[in-house]
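Mods, move this if it's the wrong board.
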Amino acid sequence: MGLLAERLGVRTPSLYKHVGGQEDLNRRIAALALGQAADAVGSAVQGRAGRDALAAAARAFRAFVLEHPGRYAATIGVEPSGPDDPLAASGQRLLDAFMAVLRGYTVAESDVDHALRMLRSLCHGFATLQSAGGFQWSADVDESFEWLIAFADRGLRAL
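Not the wrong board. Structure tokens:
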């Protein structure tokens, strides 16, 4: 908190008028980031269905992570404290955006959680690896990402 206060040009005690401490600050950053990701993905999928919605969601999510790697990292492993937690609302909005993608496919109710986890794993994994410089071989990263989208689309259509 001392470093943050220094960067903001205020005294550390002044920060505590606005946040309850480091944990509160981390939760607020996570809620902000999830909300921004939800806005990006939600806007991208609006009016789209099927592969078009999947591709738009995946690209929007990847772009958010690449543009804001620190904010996105703040969302990992943070659990809502309850239903009224802004983190829960932001997380639900992002989940709803990916649910909109799944509505363009025939996914059995019993498979929805699995399909959401698959989409999150693919998008999160690719974007965080790319953000960390994890793809250093010669194949074009954008081409690989489009291949991932096509792979996910084929899998979802095969259900």
